[in-house]
Design a protein that fits this description.
With about 350 residues, the protein is of the alpha/beta class. It has 2 domains: about 220 residues, HUPs (Rossmann fold, 3-Layer(aba) Sandwich), CATH 3.40.50.620; about 70 residues, Alpha-Beta Plaits. It is about 35% helix and about 10% strand. The longest helix has 20 residues.
Length: about 350
């Protein structure tokens, strides 16, 4: 496990000061928090006591307590719609997020350097103090080196304590066979590693950056979030992606307009075995296209064929650079290179045929 140094805790952003410098109330939780992120809104989170993730009776008790404090419980992630969050003013949701965060005590933040986790890390640091927050970055073959370097840089600039841990999903046969619920196996192993770190560091909770819009997508990783007792403050506050981008812009965070990103395994059709060489080819191909100026890009793997997804507004640029693109991706092992005429969209591999068990 690689440890980073702690950079200065001074605010390096030329931004509005986030008005959540108060320390938590001092109430403690017994063991790991078993808050189910889908049980309800945590209006009175600091008054709820809970115990380990394996205690189902405690889970049910916490869920009832949370429901009692919520007039708008968040529904199952298979049916949750945007209307519940859209009806709330962004500033109201932000205030709710502050209240939730203040009750966390000491915690780990699952950190990738993306829009959501950067915003969450910033809020946790401001609410709890940097000494009570540890960002955990997972180094993986499915996580590009470029993204890893950027995550480190952002964590340092925020004045965050952070560690980089080597993930273990590539050792899991269930992940390697690449079923539709692949993300569940990856998240499950990641959170197990994070709980080990939490135990070593005396941390009370793990938080992660799911938001309300994620509930309208196919997210098998949510199951691991629930099973492992991980808290999703942005979801509990009903913040949408647009809310988070706008609040990030107001706070001066450099990630406010960062393109959405998913792990490299999402470029591979379900049922096609995942290996490090394949992930590396995809990573190099996408880095090559980014170096040509394409900011939002995916290279989807279909055997000998690389299917490029970019926004429709970039189609002309792809055609203009087609020879360079073809030669570049050919050097990474692709025989054919195609442009997806439907354009960039998230989850395009979910459009494919039957489920792989």
């Amino acid at each position: 496990m690689e440890r980073s140094f702690v950079s200065s805790t001074s605010n390096r952003w030329s931004c509005l000061r986030c008005a959540i410098q108060e320390k938590p109330s001092g109430r403690k939780y017994s063991g790991h928090c078993a808050l189910n992120p889908l049980s309800g809104i945590v209006d009175a989170i600091t008054s709820v006591s809970c115990c380990g993730p394996g205690d189902k009776e405690s889970h049910r008790g916490v869920s009832k307590a949370l429901q009692a404090h919520s007039n708008e419980p968040i529904k199952s992630h298979f049916s949750c719609g945007r209307q519940s969050g859209a009806s709330m003013d962004m500033n109201t949701k932000f205030e709710k997020l502050k209240d939730i965060t203040k009750g966390l005590g000491r915690g780990l933040v699952a950190f990738s350097g993306g829009v959501d986790s950067t915003f969450l890390l910033k809020i946790c640091i401001d609410a709890l103090g940097p000494e009570n927050v540890l960002a955990v970055i997972g180094a993986s073959p499915a996580y590009p080196a470029r993204e890893l370097a950027e995550a480190r840089a952002i964590a340092k600039a925020l004045g965050a304590n952070f560690v980089v841990i080597q993930t273990t999903e590539m050792n899991d046969p269930d992940f390697i066979r690449n079923p539709r619920n692949r993300c569940y196996y990856c998240k499950r192993s990641l959170f197990d590693l994070m709980w080990n770190v939490a135990g070593q560091r005396g941390m009370d909770h793990i938080v992660e950056g799911s938001n309300l819009d994620d509930m309208n997508d196919f997210r098998p990783g949510r199951r691991a979030v629930e099973e492992k007792g991980v808290i999703s403050p942005l979801l509990l506050a009903k913040l949408t992606k647009n809310d988070i981008r706008e609040l990030s812009r107001t706070l001066g965070l450099p990630t406010h307009n960062k393109p959405s990103y998913a792990c490299l395994a999402s470029r591979i059709p379900y049922g096609t075995r995942i290996d490090k060489d394949l992930l590396r080819r995809i990573e190099y191909s996408e880095d090559f296209l980014k170096d040509l100026g394409f900011k939002q890009v995916r290279v989807r793997y279909h055997g000998d064929v690389a299917r490029i997804e970019v926004p429709a507004g970039d189609f002309d640029a792809v055609v203009a650079k087609r020879e360079k693109i073809y030669e570049g991706l050919k050097s990474f092992g692709f025989t054919y290179v195609s442009l997806d005429l439907k354009g960039y969209r998230t989850g395009s591999m979910n459009e494919e045929g039957p489920s792989i068990p």
